[in-house]
Amino acid sequence: MLATLVIGLREGLEAALIVGILAAFLKRNGSSLRPMWLGVAAALLLSVTIGVGLELVSMSLPQRAQEGMETVVGAVALVFVTGMVVWMSTHARGLKKDLEAHAGAALKDGTTWAVAGMAFLAIVKEGFETSVFLLATFQNSTSVGAAALGAVLGIGISVVIGIGLYQGGIRFNLGRFFQVTSVFLVLVAAGLVMGVLRTAHESGWLTIGQTKVADLSWLAPYGSVQAALITGVLGIRADPRAVEVLGWTLYLVPLLAYVLWPPKRRAQGAQVPRLQLSLAAGLAVVGLVLVVAVPAAAPARAGGPVDVVAGSDRVGTADVERGALVLTTADGSTRTALSHPVAAVRSGVDATRWTWTGQDAADLPATLTLTELVALAGGRLPVGVDPQAATGPYDAAWTVTTTGTAWTAHGSLLDATQTGKAVVTLSGGGLQMPRAMTVATLPGSAGPAQWQVDPATVAATADRLADAQSAAADRTLWNRWLPLVLLVAAAALAAAGLRHRRALRAAVPSTPTPVAAPAAALPVDA
């Protein structure tokens, strides 16, 4: 609630100041205020429509797409609030003078409708910024109702202050007000950075830097006043991740330093370009040190063969070798070619899914003895087989239909399962007529017709791979992305410093070279 109250108060007061300055200017010039109020009303209606439309679109999307839209809205809000804070920090003092100059030019070129257009564009800008920023703050808030109430109160207070300023009944230091609220908004926006990075991860767009760096649940228990302040207002989560803390720091520190830096020193003095160039050099050095010092991410490894079970019984192991699944049982091993690779996620791990169908029955025995038949039937005599009359051996005709799926990650088998059935048709050996029987386990080295990788083994392998992938992503964050951000910032600071230095040199008038006076005539001796 506090965050949205300050946002509503700050943005509303900016809009109220603009309207008040334009209204006072028109009143002094004897012009009608009606066109300006029409422009203000149209801008407010458009701003509310934009905010409601964004919320309705977000609600109509599936969960993952909602997270993506929240990320986009939050990023746009960050751009707006950053631009607003920087612009007001440098232009607040001359806001009235600039507006009156533009309004005077508009009146000279046309009518009060031109001033109405100025009011419309100014309020649309403030209203759109407010809608997007409030929407992003609502999504980051622990209580939408309280956040909405805070926004309404803030806007209401700003309207009252704006009327008081216009009528002259309220006077206070606007520069100090904007500086204090700018500091607060920077803190809120830094928390919004963490929220944007969190929703970007939940939408699947950001996978690096997801190691949890702290547990702040003790500091801000859920439902407590501390949680309302730390999470609801400042946007700091109870389980911050590495990339979130890094983004929070990279946003908060430079922008807060800019807001608190004395305005007169931002664009004056020879020390400014020197400071910019020094900071650029420092950032570049830190970025290069990270590239060299942080080793590249090592490839993740899942391990070797994994256990295979049929029902609750362990029947062997499985592994992948050169595009084939190798199933090893007590009787030997078989190779099955894998095909149709597709990117997938299995047990929370990025993997490749393979499939296979059918099984070659050429290696299965053409005859079965009575003992082998009883073993295939699970230790029981099959129905319709009389051991006294049909003593065997029996002719066996096999029909095997199986389908299987395997998931591999980083060249190792993560999970696999095979379903299907094998039917053997028996004839001869004293049987009056052919008999068909379904078997669960194939004889010889073919292994069972239905099996899967042990779930406990899958979970353990997935955990190892997830840890390895997380570590690799963290290495990428510190070895590649952070140095890139620092080097880009260094280049921007260096360009600004050089441009500032050239501007200072151009502003210094050149001193003319002194011309030597002619030497006095020396007296000549008579």
Short recap of the structure:
This is Iron uptake transporter permease EfeU. With 526 residues, this protein is of the alpha+beta class.
Order of helices and strands: HHHHHHHHHHEEEEEEEHEEEEH
Rounded mean pLDDT score: 76
Main structural class: alpha+beta
User: What integer value in Å does the Rg equal?
Assistant: 38 Å
What's the total count of β strands? 11
> How would you characterize the largest beta sheet?
11 strands, antiparallel
Q: With helices defined by DSSP (H or I, 4 residues minimum), what is the helix count?
A: 12
State the share of residues found in helices, binned by percent.
55-70%
Distance between the termini: 104 Å
Give the number of domains: 3
Q: What fraction strand?
A: 15-25%
Gross geometry:
elongated
Low-confidence stretches: 519-526
Q: What oligomeric assembly is this protein in?
A: single chain
